Predict the 3D structure of the following.
Amino acid sequence: MRRFSWFNVTSLTLGFAFLYLPMVLLVVYSFNESRLVTVWAGFSTKWYGELLRNEEFLDAAWVTLKVAVFSSTIATVLGTMAAYVLVRAGRFRGRTLFSGMIYAPLVMPEVITGLSLLLLFIGIGLDRGVLTIVLAHTTFSMCYVSVVVSSRLTSFDRSLEEAALDLGCSPFEAFRLVTLPIIAPAVISGWLLAFTLSLDDLVIASFTTGPSATTLPIKIFSAVRLGVSPEINALSTLLIGIVTVGVITASIVTKRAAVAQARDEQAAERNE
Amino acid sequence: MRRFALIAIPYFWLLILFLVPFVIVLKISLSDVALARPPYTPQLDLSAGWEGLRAFFSELDFENFVFLTTDDLYWKAYVSSLKIALVSTLLTLLVGYPIAYGMARAPNEWRPTLLMLVILPFWTSFLIRVYSWMGILSNEGTLNTVLLWLGVIDTPLQIMNTNTAVYIGIVYTYLPFMVLPIYSALEKMDESLIEAAEDLGCSKLAAFWLVTWPLSRNGIIAGCFLVFIPAIGEFVIPSLLGGSGTLMIGKVLFEEFFSNRDWPVASAVAVILLLILIIPIILFQRNEQKAREAEG
Amino acid sequence: MAQTVFAPWEDPEQKPLIEFRNVTKRFGEFTAIDDLSLNIYEREFFALLGPSGCGKTTMMRMLAGFESVTEGHIWLGGQDIINVPPNKRPVNMMFQSYALFPHLSIWDNIAFGLRRESKDKAMIEERVEEMLRLTRLTKFARRKPHQISGGQRQRVALARSLAKAPKLLLLDEPLGALDKKLREETQFELMDIQEKTGTTFVIVTHDQEEAMTVASRIAVMDEGRLVQVDTPDVIYEAPNSVYVADFIGDVNLIPGTAKPRPAEPEAPAPEPAPAAVEDAAPAVEGTSPEATAQAKVQTDARLPAPNARGEWLYKKVFARFMGQRDLATPQLPPPSPEELAAARKAEAKAAAKPAPAPAPAPKPAIKPGGILIDWAEGQPPIIAANGDPALDGKPVTLSIRPEKVTIDLEKPDRPNVLPGKVIDIAYLGNISTYHVELASGQMVKAQMVNARRLSNRHITWEDAVWIGFTETAGVVLEE
């Protein structure tokens, strides 16, 4: 059995300390009585109370959630289609352009994406608001979804689809009955990725939003520009908590499934 | 018919919401300030046929680009962005490599947990992660408080609102992008290679330098590009952690657009930023391609 | 062997189930299948055999409908199917990876195809149960594919593809993922199921042993063409080319040049080969037209032994100038009518088929006719009684299986005897293969059954030995 060498322990400890200490401090100071973030004045949950009474934050959170749910859902549908096209549709006119458009947003600076979309929306006279943010978020997050899904599709044994066709499925039935259930985990993680990207996004939302729709990141950004605020700490703690619980749950679920599968397979070989 | 719909729906979505906006940016970057309000003049009047086309093009000029070269704010911002991105990429590599190495050499049962610990921040809001450093680096922040208490320093260090803060912010937020590709390159490596190198007379350090490092090269290159490319256009980090002296093109563009409302110049800034990015993007793609081919 | 031989390909009345008509398949510049025509009959177990990239998988995928046909037509049961999509073809396929749906139970996997075409639950249930019984999987019905072993998965794949009772079942390297022992068992199981269900099977494999075991006929493919289509025994005993001989089993290939064999059939030869050549040399020129004629008739007939027709030929043609033959010389018994009929049917088989009856004569005669092969400078030529005299002067290759080559320390009394030296011995338990280097440097493998225990065997490394084989043991192949 391999063990940690002291060098590895040191580098991992320091590395993870660097990654987690700032967030731990953030969480700790969210329970600080004092408004001054750096002076500890006793434990308190009053900032959470203030946060929940702050209508602006609640409104922004609601807008953000709406945008994230809509955009990630549309992005998942479009991204899965795009992935399927990239991996399975073979050659067609303009394929190079298509794959270029899928990969470009991944490396595109957000300021450029945001600027260009804003100019489009102004050009076609679309009122800026929730709809325009949803369109913008869908566009860049569908590319992430398609990357996640297409990497799963590439490793997907194509003969499974052929078997479905061979047994009498139409191509659409084969997708619905065989491909989709099997790639479902990738589609779900694509959705989660799109959802998080939408929740996080500040720059593109700033460009494409109008006065009617302020998202949480925009709100946070304008608040923290002026300096550290305990309310934002409280808000951050909530968000970090949600993400942590989500990620840990997901990893436990997948690990359980993997362990069960490995156990079944071993049992199967013994039964031979 | 179904196949056509399958291709056409995502295709047109991207055409309209990704490609067309770029064409608009390009066009506005070539237009005049006063006329750059919708419907962005010059307008292409197709009904006028060839004459219309010629009139359209004759109205376009490179004035905005010329303007960018005359005002040294812009090219300084480009150079400074590149410098900041480069330095912070190297710093990220320096911090990230030992972590990736430690993970790849960790006992098998530990690896999934370590991997999850690296990915977890990635799911956490970028903005919050940058914000978390504001409380640490400010003059009355945690770092200065601790250092003063320890007696290491007498007066608070000015880190917040300097380029140093920007470096720290970039290293911190982009660390997972560096660690993950290096980790996956190192994890794939057969450990008996190290044993073979030592068996053939290498010291541990020589074995690392002659075997491990070259074999993790693809991961290193991928990681560096994944940090470098987005860092160039970074906006949130310089505007929260950097000071007035921190020039980064993403910030300049944002301010040009929202404060000065000068759309044509902002568009020209974006076009040049894109041109600068094309080179590392192509190099990155090529590296990925090679790595894929090497894996067969 | 009382039942009638299953050989629909010999019956001109039989309509083939599958007909490839001048089928060509190109992938861009690359021609995967090149103007190929082939008939496959109902109830056949047909094997497509060849190295990877020979086009066998493409053929199968064209039958299943996963590859389009560039040129030509494929008929299945009287219907041109090239434009029929895979889900509308009465063809099912068993995939190399088995392609079991991981999210469905064994039961649902088998029912999958049935549910596509029928809503009748009871019918589906009955059919699935039947398939489970046939493949002995009943107790695994509720499991998921990852919960059963490789061999069981293979049977699920078979059951699923048979469930719809297809006219034609395609098997793509069906046993490739199984270990050797399981594979052998499963081969017999496959044959058994094929017989029970009466389905036509087309199997793709690169494993020649597998093809030989299961198939009624084998098509050997190379670079998108059919090299030979025949029953396993003909493929093995009478390959039509060096490629087939080399691909199927172990073989010695001795290149040389053909020259006519003197018509004197039985130069009483203790020193068979060289003596025969010298004695007969003058006669060669004078008799060559007749010899050619004789050879032509013989090759046309392609009967296994110097039989009735050979007798007739001798009497009518050769007796005139060679005088009456001593009929007392022990000859192979004339073939029985049944044997003759069988031989005529399987034309291609004939060339190399070992003499039908053992005929243990005190001193076997050397069969007349055929050719001599000069294979090395200063060495007596090899007698190949089954060679086509029309090959005279052409470069040929004698292909001879190691098990037909004997090895002795003393010079044996055999039609072809060549001296050599043992270089290597491969001991495989039941048999040993001796690698013998002949004087010319040519390596020849000889196989012996290890009937005796190891300690009793006497031939060892560096021994000077004689290898021997009969005049009909080899097959003469044109380059």
